[in-house]
Amino acid sequence: MTAPLSGAQKCAILVLLLEEAQAAELLRRMDAAEVQAVGEAMLTVAEIEPALIDGVLDEFISRTRGVSALDSQGRQVRAVLSRALGTPRAERVIEQLGPPAAPRRFAGLDWLDTATIATLLADEHPQAAALVLAHLADVRAAAVLDALPLAIRGDVVTRLATMKPVAPAVIADLEADLEAKLAAQESAANEALLAGTDFTARLVKLSTNKAVLLDALAGVDADLAAEVAAQQFVFADLLGLGMKDMQLVLREADPATLAVAMKGADAALQGLIFAAMSKRAASQLQDELAEKGPMKRAEVDAAQAEICALVRRLGESGAVMMPGAAGAYV
After folding, report:
1. Three-class SS state of 136
2. Does domain 233-321 have CATH number 1.10.220.30?
3. In this prediction, what percent of the chain has a pLDDT beyond 70?
4. I need a labelling partner for 267 at 20 to 30 A (CA). Which of 74, 111, 184, 228 fits?
5. Those residues with Cβ within 8 angstroms of residue 260's Cβ, 6 or more apart along the chain or in another chain
6. Is residue 130 classed exposed, middle or buried when 0-12, 13-18 and 19+ CB atoms within 10 A define those classes?
7. Domain 105-188 maps to which CATH number in 1.10.220.30, 3.30.70.100, 3.30.420.40, 1.10.1740.10?
8. Residue 108 and residue 104: Cα distance in Å, rounded?
9. 256-279 confidence digits (pLDDT tens)
């Protein structure tokens, strides 16, 4: 015996029979939980028997024969009050009437998970966060409160406990601000970064026509070409130099700049650099590194960039063999 269809399955059948625009309008009038239930039910009725579909349609027609023309969403109530009282006064009355005449505030948050709501509220004023929580169902509000940063949680709880009546216009403004903020975040999240300078630099680095590509880029944008060129050889790439090439670089490098650049080098690179020096020079550099202590990342990055620029100049002149450039020599 076939199990009877659930309400969600019957609704799913009706939605699937409608044209796309009509189905979208119907779903738009449901809340988040209803849309989820109907959406899941659609998967279970995709191959339903025609007789069951006819039964659902018969039931729908039977149930709608005695339905009043008054809509349950309160649109007629709002329209009549607005005409009778004028918009400002009508809005105050509608707010007092509550749903369905007045739309439920922050209903858009029903579509978000707890963590997303907490993130949305984390940088808002605690009073604003408390106001939003006051409009959520108890269980959901408690979950969002637990997910808020610990630094503001106590303040939000205090404001919830001491909250006074709030003007409807203030609530409406906050709701609009949060919707705009959420829309901006979603827009940014949906924008995929497909390339950029880092990606371009990697492609140029792998190309056998590196110089041609950089020259072509320089003809369009010299600054951009310099940025891409700077990424062709980074400080960690020193590990790819042969011992003789490393020794030449160390002879040409400014000792003070090298000492700063070494603060950001890993153990393997430090070992290679020390091995390319005399014991006395390596000992002096090690002592200097120990004396320097912690340094700003920007200073270290600048020193490493200077060393890399030196290596690139030596490579372009043919004085050193750049890592991965063996194919360019005949």
Report:
1. coil
2. yes
3. 81
4. 228
5. 292, 295, 299, 300, 303
6. buried
7. 1.10.220.30
8. 9
9. 899 999 887 888 889 999 999 999
